[in-house]
């Protein structure tokens, strides 16, 4: 019998509501929420000034996050990852967290229009002014060029959530 916890992660464009959904799912499932933004700000405060900085530092925390998450899953804890799963490579890494220990995963795909994402980003600039330098329309378009919707051939357990907010 498998007593491992379940891993949940999210795919959706910038502003689609991934962090909001992650908090909600963690609360509903009594899961442990792991936030990339929190890990990055705790370990590299004031060091992320550009998209390239983000990529660099996000890759530095992955080995520590992996060990941490796999240990929690091994105890039977449900883990909710507020990390982007917006490319095939990102999803493969997140999926490996559970696959390597023979656990289960679920990716929730927030299929939200660009207009909705941009509106939510504008609201976030007001509610979280510390993010305003990164939460711009230009950054949305830059990041969106790398977005890859999840496909069945990735071996994912996909849950589609259209127009989530």
Mean pLDDT: 92
The coarse silhouette is globular
Radius of gyration from CA coordinates: 15 Å
Q: Estimate the strand proportion.
A: 15-25%
* N→C terminal distance: 37 Å
Low-confidence stretches: none
Element string (H = helix, E = strand)? EHEHHEHEHHE
Biggest sheet: strand arrangement: 2-3-1-4-5
Helix content: 40-55%
Main sheet? 5 strands, parallel
Name the CATH superfamily classification.
P-loop containing nucleotide triphosphate hydrolases
**CATH hierarchy class name:** Alpha Beta
Number of domains: 1
List how many beta strands DSSP finds. Answer: 5
Instruction: Tell me the CATH architecture.
Output: 3-Layer(aba) Sandwich
Structural class assignment: alpha/beta
Describe the model:
The chain has a five-stranded parallel beta sheet with strand order 2-3-1-4-5, with helices on both faces. The protein is 47% helix and 18% strand. The model has no long low-confidence stretch (mean pLDDT 92). It has 165 residues and is α/β, with parallel strands linked by helices. The longest helix is centred in the middle third of the chain and has 24 residues. The chain has a single domain, classed as Rossmann fold. The termini are far apart. Pfam families: AAA_33 (PF13671). This is ATP-binding protein. GO terms for molecular function: ATP binding. InterPro entries: P-loop_NTPase. Keywords: ATP-binding, Nucleotide-binding.
């Amino acid at each position: 019998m498998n007593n491992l916890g379940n891993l949940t992660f999210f795919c959706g464009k910038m502003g689609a509501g991934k962090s909001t959904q992650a908090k909600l799912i963690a609360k509903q499932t009594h899961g442990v929420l792991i936030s990339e933004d929190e890990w990055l700000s705790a370990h590299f405060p004031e060091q992320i000034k550009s998209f390239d900085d983000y990529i660099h530092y996000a890759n530095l925390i992955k080995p520590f996050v992996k060990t941490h998450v796999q240990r929690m899953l091994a105890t039977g804890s449900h883990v909710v990852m507020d990390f982007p799963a917006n490319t095939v490579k990102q999803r493969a890494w997140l999926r490996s967290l559970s696959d390597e220990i023979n656990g289960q995963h679920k990716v929730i795909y927030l299929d939200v229009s660009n207009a909705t994402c941009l509106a939510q980003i504008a609201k976030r600039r007001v509610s979280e002014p510390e993010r305003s330098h990164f939460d711009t329309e230009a950054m949305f378009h830059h990041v969106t060029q790398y977005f890859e919707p999840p496909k069945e051939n990735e071996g994912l357990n996909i849950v589609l959530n259209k127009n989530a907010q």
